[in-house]
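Page header: ASSEMBLY MODEL / two components / 532 residues total.
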Amino acid sequence: MTSTSETAIEVTDLWKAFPRYKPGIGSLKALFSFRYGQRPDRVWGLRDLSFTVSRGESVAVIGRNGSGKSTLLGILARVYLPTRGRVCVKGRIAPLLELGAGFHPELTGRENIVLNGAILGLSRKEIDAHMDDIIRFSELEEFIDTPIKTYSVGMQMRLGFAVAVQTKPDVLLVDEVLAVGDEAFQHKCYRQIERFQKEGRTILFVSHDLESVRRVAPRTIWIHRGVVQADGPTEEVVSAYHEQSLRDEEEATE
Amino acid sequence: MPTMLTDLRELYRYRDLLRVLVERDLKVRYKRSALGFLWSFINPLMQALVLTLVFKFVLKIQIPNYSAWVLAAILPWTFFQNSVLDAAQSILNHFTLLKKVYFPREIVPLSTVISNLIHLGLSFFVFLIYAWIIRIHIGPMILLLPILVLFHFLLNAGIALAVSAMNVYYEDVKFIVQVFVQLLFYVCPIIYPTSRIVAEGGDPFSPMSLLFLKLYLLNPMASLIFAYQKILLSRAAQLDPRPLDFGLLCITFLQCLLIAAWGYWFFNKRKWEFAERL
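Prediction written out in full:
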C-alpha cells in the first residue's frame, strides 16, 4: 500500500434519481417540456452516498442486484449526472469495457486498439505510444492484423483488458468482467491488477464473486438499496453481507 | 452561450475520437464489397440515369445535359439524406458505449455526417470526370464549392444532432424523418428545374416570377441545390437562365448557421440524459 493520503475519489452526499419508466406519450412530452428536469415521477437509485478513496487504494463495491452499484460506477465514469451531491475524481478514470463495447468485428485487432483507446479519451499519439505494450500483454501478436470477428470470446476479452490496463488510467473501474476468460488469463489479469496497485493506481471493483473481492480489495463498500450499508475491511463487510444474504434467503423460503 | 463554448472546447479535446470513428465508418461501410467507395457514386449515378431515361423515353421531354444537371443535384441531396437518416439511428446504435464511457455525445452523430461529407467529396471528384467525358464545361464558379459545402455541412450537422437526440426519446422520430425527407425531395429542384418556378405568363424575369423563385429558395435545401447546379455546371448546361442571387444565398447561409447552432443546443441540453433513457 502506498502511504500517500491523497484522495482519488471523493463522493459527498450523492443522490441519483431515475425517471420512472412510463410507456407512451410521456417521453415525447418530456422531450419538448420547457420545465426540463422537473419530473416528479422518479425513483431514487442512490440515496445520500458519501465516501472517499485514497490514491492507490483498491476498493470493492458489493450489493445485491439493483442495489445501485452500477449506477455508482456510471456516475464515477461521468456517464450519468448526479441528481444531488458532488463527485470528484482526480486524474483520468477509465472503465474496463465489457465484451463488444467499443470494438468493431470487421476491424483488425490493431485498429480496434486505436478505436478503444480513443473511446477511453486517449489521443492518437498516446495510443501509438502504448501500442506495443498492449499487443504484448494481450498475447495476440499473431492475430493482431486480422479482423476481430475471427477472435474467440477469450481473445476479445484479452484485447479489451490489455487496452484498459496498459493505457495506465489513474482510476480503473472494473465491473464484473474478470469472471469470463480461462484460468490462465484470469491469473494474468490478477497479476496485472497487482502490478497496477503497486504503481499507486486506484481500482474500484464491482463484483458478485466474493472470492475475487477478497483477493483484489482490502476494503469493501456494501451498498443496499442505494444506501451505504457498510464500509470497512473486506473480511468484516463480506461476512456481514454473506450473513444478510443467508437471512434473506431464509425469509424468502419461509 | 458560455456552455456552448465549453462544449465545443471539450469536443475539440476529443477530436481524435471523432477522427477514429469517421475512419471506422469509412473502413467498415464497404469493407466486404469489391467496388468499395465507388458505390457512393454509383448509387446517385444510377438514380440520375433512371431519371434521364424516364424523361427522355417515357415522358419524351428533351432536355440537353439533363443527366449532368440531375447529378449535380442528387450528389448533395444524397449527402443530406444519408447524413440525416444515418444520424437518426446513431445514438441508439452506440448505446452500450454511452452507458459505459464518458465522451462528448455529439461525436456520434457528427461522425456519421463527416463520413458522408467525405463520400460527397469523393463523388464530386468522380462527377468531374463524368462531366469531362460527356463534355460539360466546368466554370470558374466551382471555386465557390468549398464554401457551399461548408454551409451545407452545418445544415446537415444541425439537423442530424437534433434528430439523433429526439430519436432517443421516441423512435417514431426516425420514421417521421424518413417521410419528411421524401417530401423534401419534391420541394427541391432535383427532378425539375427552377425554371418551372414562374408566375403566369411564363416569363422567368417578370417581377412576380422572381418573387416566386425567392420564396421557393427560402427553403435552405432548395437554395443549396440551386446553388450547386449554378456552381458545378457551365452556363450552357443551365436549365434556368436566372443567375445565382448572392444576397439570397447569404440568407440561406445564415439559415444553415442558425440551424446548426439550434441543433447543437438542442442536443447538448439533453445529451447527459441519453444513457438513462437507452
